[in-house]
Design goal:
Elements: H1 7-16, E1 20-27, E2 30-40, E3 45-53, H2 62-76, E4 81-87, H3 91-100, E5 106-108, E6 111-113
Parallel strand pairs: 3-4
Antiparallel strand pairs: 1-2, 2-3, 4-6, 5-6
GO molecular function, one term: acyltransferase activity, transferring groups other than amino-acyl groups
Pfam families: Acetyltransf_1
Organism: marine metagenome
Length: about 110
């Protein structure tokens, strides 16, 4: 799945895909961030296919915590890698992923695979 994608594609993958999970980050009862993972066991990796933090809650470490939690899950499941796709113009997200340790694998049609 590439980004941007249609919401119904995400819902179909989430509910029909038995190897997917979505986690939320909350402030009280309000969900302020989320991350969706797809376990690609044959490839030995976890793909992060949806990461979002509410604009009012960005730059507070929420995105980083969600990604680090996914990294912990990768270790528990013996995944060899975490991957994600991103639009190359999203400099703020690229900076976050690089700070965490993601490396650029491929640049294709203005999309980055990390």
């Amino acid at each position: 799945m590439t980004y941007p994608f249609r919401f119904n594609q995400w819902v179909n993958l989430l509910y029909k895909g038995k190897d997917t999970e979505t986690w939320g980050a909350f402030s009280g009862k309000w969900m302020v961030g989320m991350i969706s993972l797809e376990y690609l066991q044959e490839e030995g990796r976890i793909h992060l296919f949806h990461i979002y933090v509410d604009k009012e809650y960005r730059r507070k470490g929420i995105g980083k915590k969600l990604i680090l939690k996914a990294e912990e899950q990768g270790k528990k499941t013996n995944a060899k890698a975490l991957t994600l796709n991103i639009i190359s113009g999203n400099a703020e997200a690229v900076l976050l992923y690089e700070k965490i340790g993601f490396k650029l694998i491929e640049l294709k049609n203005k999309k980055m695979k990390m």
